[in-house]
Amino acid sequence: MIIRISFIYCIFSLIPFFGFAQFVITGTLRNEQNYPIDNVTISYKKIGAVAILGFARSDDKGQYKLSFKVTDVDSLQLEFNHLSYAKKNIHVANASGNYSYILKTETRKIQEVKVADPPISFHKDTLNYTVDAFTSKKDQVIADIIKKLPGVEIRGDQILYQGKAIQKYMVNNLDLMEGRYAMINNNLPADVVKSIQIVENDQPIKILDSIVFSDRATLNLELKNFTSTGTGKIGVGAAPFLWDFNLTPMTFGKKFQMLNSFQTNNIGNNVSKDLRQFYTSGLFFGGTNEAISNGPSFISLRNANTPDFEESKWLDNRIFLLNNNFLQKLKNNLEIKGNISYFNDYRKSQGFIATQFYTVDQTILTSETIDNRNRNQTFDIGVTLEKNSKNIYFKNTFKYRENWNRANGGILLNNQDQISQNRDYNDKVLYNVLSITSFIGKQLFSINSVVEKHQTPQYLIVRPGQMDRIINNGIPYEQMKQYVNFNSFKTGNNLGFTRSLNRWKVSPKISVDYNQNILISNAKLTNNGQDKDLGANFLNDVKSSQLQMSLSSGFTYENLKWKIIFNTPFSLFVFNYRQQQFESLSNENKTTFNPSSTIVYSINSRNELLLNTSGGKKIGGLSNFYSKYIINSYRSLQRYDDRLLSTNLYNINVNYNYKNLFNANFLHLSYHFQKSVNDYIFNNKIDELGQSTISVESQKNTAINHNVKGGLSKFFSEIKTIVKLNGNISLNTTDYFLNTALVKQKSWATETQFEIINNYFNFLNLEYRTNYNYAIIKLANNQENSIKSNNHFLNIVTYPLENHMISINNSYYKNNLTNQYFLDASYRFHIKKWRTDLQLMLQNLLNNNSYVQQLSTTFQLMESRFELRPRQFIISTSIRF
Q1: 175 neighbors 326 (Cβ within 8 angstroms)
Q2: Which runs of E-coded beta strand occur in 83-132?
Q3: How far apart are CA 214 and CA 598, in angstroms?
Q4: Which residue in 134, 228, 476, 775 could disulfide with 251, CB within 3.0 to 4.6 Å?
Q5: pTM, two decimal places
Q6: Could you give the CA distance from residue 481 to residue 476 in angstroms, rounded to a whole number?
Q7: C-alpha distances in Å from residue 235, one per residue of 414, 430, 531, 840
Q8: Would you give the end-to-end CA distance of the chain in angstroms?
């Protein structure tokens, strides 16, 4: 209801922008000696009114310009103010005009005032948030500040501005981490940062500035000094023995930056998330902005469903992490960056899942008690060479990464069958990306190249063997083994140029992409100590390749108000596919045409509208292109039809952004429509034991999605309070095939989040947040599931004495199945001289031992229970240096 009212209000508030003309008043201001006067403040208001409606300043030529829309009066009052000249007031018609005046010299005395930086200021395209205005005594790292900023959100360590992910995170205008900014965000002391800058519509590649439009923002931290800083922490606790260690020193100089980190804990803090790469940069003319990919996983271990709240309450792990990032700025704007990291994460998970499978003619019930152990290790090393200047852009990044994942566990199926499962997954990847952009004559040329190679062996072992009626004629057997070896090589290369023609820019591009995959898999069963192959239906020996040649033209028009972008890519695909020496595809040709357009209208400095449309045909890739069965879990088989799959996809996206820095208001609204028409559908077959076989059928199906989301935030500087409201509504319809019946699924979901943070009192800070989620899913046989949750969080921080802090964190979770209340508390003593904190943390004081929730998928309703961390206490000392 709140979202609906806010949406209607914003629509009506836009009417004046489109319904009435805008008037402009210009003029020149001079002194009695006929010299121009700069920095004169010219304001306008209704005659006799107190409220100022707007203002401008004269430039160094004495010229000024006022743009306004006032509809209910015939005349306006202009006021001219300057400390060295007499104040002047005039009345002018409510229409465009030119008014020039002579100001008389007069010195005016002013009272002594204290000058402070405004909380939010704006210069050109850059927003400046003064850190001190948003800081309270409890804040330690810069993430504590960023999450409060109006217009900014942090979702799972990813930073968004006006609902869109940022494209760069910089410190003193240098990008040390190349997208792994959570490591800085969660460890950089807040008190070393002077301001947080958001650069709107930023083009980080200097040679493309004013040439290639960007609708994304860059975040930059301006430090108080070029400094060496960081955090350190040592903590121990009990129930069971607990430890928490973190040493993260950082250096941020003008030409050299470095971050080192060693962290280990078993308190439920998953520090490996700090290594997630939220963006890469450097590719132009349609290059990807994704981080290095993972090799595909064809098999999985059945895991318990984890709770949908913070990991520290349920994650039972032991993690060790090492990381180093460095940046050295050389001559001629050349930078060299490097990174090396390794982490070893061992975790336990225990839970229970009761599943209802809804088919057309019956409901199937299963239960699983799960107890798993998982060890994940990742090693990553890379080096980047980058030159970013007005004349040339060059960047080359080379990376090697290896990931090892070994997991084992036990399942008690339907309270009677004990099953063990083991999974081993290994992924080695070499990755190199090159981008060069430069002018040749008046044309801007760009070359981009990406090379990525994966080697990904994996296997699954299940004891005793399952699905005997499907794979062994109903005869029980001891063990099932599924082996998969996947190798891939892919490269993407393109050449393009841009030519300016007055306000238009034309950007043709030609690209050649190639992808080759080799997939070998076989399955065996073991009985009486003897291995037996499951036969040809379980043997994949696949070699496939895909060649894509594309020709596209981009057209861009830009002026002060409008930015219009069209892209017209045409692609020719050539496919080859061989399965067990039989070629089912030999130089098979397919073509696609996928035009897109983006229109941006800047109504004024506060309001902006964006429309994005795209459409065309997508051809399915070859990563999951296999026609023989793979056992992908202890109770599931899957295979694909050996033909090319295609989807006709249509997208419309409308965005509205509003910001008012004087009132510290930020608003964003968006509507997204997507329609996809597939020439295939997955055929799911579920037997009475809940065991499934998944294949692909040549059956057309349609999926439609509507999504409306928005966010509103405001900072009340007088009472140091931040208020944020975010909402999301989605409606989906799709077809699915279950046990030979074609069924249409409909779902409706809404999500609302409200947050208020108050830092007004010196002795008290309050934070309150609530989430409300509601979803309805309509399934086969007129079944309907509704899932609700309403969570509340109240954090109370008080300072009874100087340098003493007591924090009480209250969490209340309510869903269809349960209500649970969590209570955490902490005490902190700050030693100011040493920048050190002594802290006692008490977690899960009520000793909640499990969490119950409900989840729904296409044709399943799951009720799950997950074991939580027990009550625990931790004593720690931390230092900011």
Answers
A1: no
A2: 85-93, 97-98, 101-102, 120-123, 126-130
A3: 11
A4: 228
A5: 0.83
A6: 15
A7: 42, 38, 51, 9
A8: 48
The span from the CA of 73 to the CA of 233, in Å, is 64
Structure tokens at 10: 């914003």
- Give the pLDDT band (50/70/90) at residue 565: very high
pLDDT tens, residue by residue, 204-239: 888 888 778 788 899 999 999 878 999 999 999 998
Structural tokens at position 29: 């201001």
Q: Structure tokens of 645?
A: 């799959």
| Pick from 558, 569, 555, 434: nearest CA to 498 | 555
Helix (H), strand (E) at residue 9: helix 2-19
Q: Structure tokens of 194?
A: 């002077």
Do residues 509 and 492 touch, judged by C-beta distance below 8 A? no
Distance (Å) of CA 169 to CA 175, 278, 658: 6, 10, 23
Cα(559)–Cα(600) distance, integer angstroms: 10
DSSP state at residue 182 = H
What's the burial of 74, exposed, middle or buried (CB within 10 Å: 0-12/13-18/19+)? exposed
Beta strands 23-30 and 646-660 are unpaired
Buried b (16+ CB within 10 A) or exposed e, 724-763: bbbbbbbebbbebbbbeeebebebbbbbbbbbebbbeeee
Residue 403: the pLDDT is 96
Identity of the residue numbered 387: K
List domains and CATH numbers for the chain.
2-102 (2.60.40.10), 120-238 (2.170.130.10), 698-881 (no CATH)
Gyration radius (Cα) of the chain, Å = 31
Residue 686 has phi, psi (to 5 degrees) of: -115, 125
Sheet bearing 158-161, strands edge to edge: 152-155, 158-161, 164-165
Structure tokens at 410: 């036990």
Which amino acid does the sequence have at 402? Answer: E
Q: How far apart are CA 188 and CA 739, in angstroms?
A: 55
Decide if 524 contacts 532 (C-beta within 8 A). Answer: yes
Share of the chain above pLDDT 90, in %: 62
Statement: residue 686 has pLDDT above 80? yes
CB 768 within 8 A of CB 793: yes
